[in-house]
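Example (one chain per record):
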Amino acid sequence: MSLLSTIKSNPKLKKIAHWLIIPPGQARPRLWVRLLVNPFVHKRGKNTVIRFNSRMDLFPFSKFEIGNSCIVEDFATINNGVGEVVIGNNVGIGLSNVIIGPVKLGNYVMLAQNIVISGLNHGYEDVSTPPRTQKVVTKQIIIEDDVWIGANCVITAGVTIGKHAVIGAGSVVTKDIPQFSVAVGNPARVIKKYDFETKSWGKI
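Predicted structure:
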């Protein structure tokens, strides 16, 4: 049995390991993890720029991968604590974006400013317990190649956004968006689709 399996199967060891990696009550790894562990665990592609003022809240027990020629702008936060974050090539992550796994971004995805993409929800059903302390629920978010998401959008857990879709600024995406479409609003709805026969974008 490997060391990792031993720790996972022993509640006391798991609790100690968790404390060593994460300060109590926080969702950010300790400094020694960020400096001494993550650079050797997570994959970062060539020519990718992660700005100094961004927060890479990455944990070694969950996958994080970012492809080639990407940029993560200042004040963005990426967190893989409750789910993997996998980012393709030539992806632009704008100012003050928040990405909480499980999330998968394809190639040439363009994210404007102040976007929240979160595969995480807190339970709320037990009214005798604060939602903050209830069990978290995660659902995979998939954003396929060539998607453009406008400023101030929210992408909720479990959503898939198809290839070359455009999400208008300020939209809240709660359901899947088909490929080659434009969606806007709260909740977001499709208003245009690309017609390959006429080679034009038509209104719905």
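Caption: The first helix runs from residue 3 to 9.
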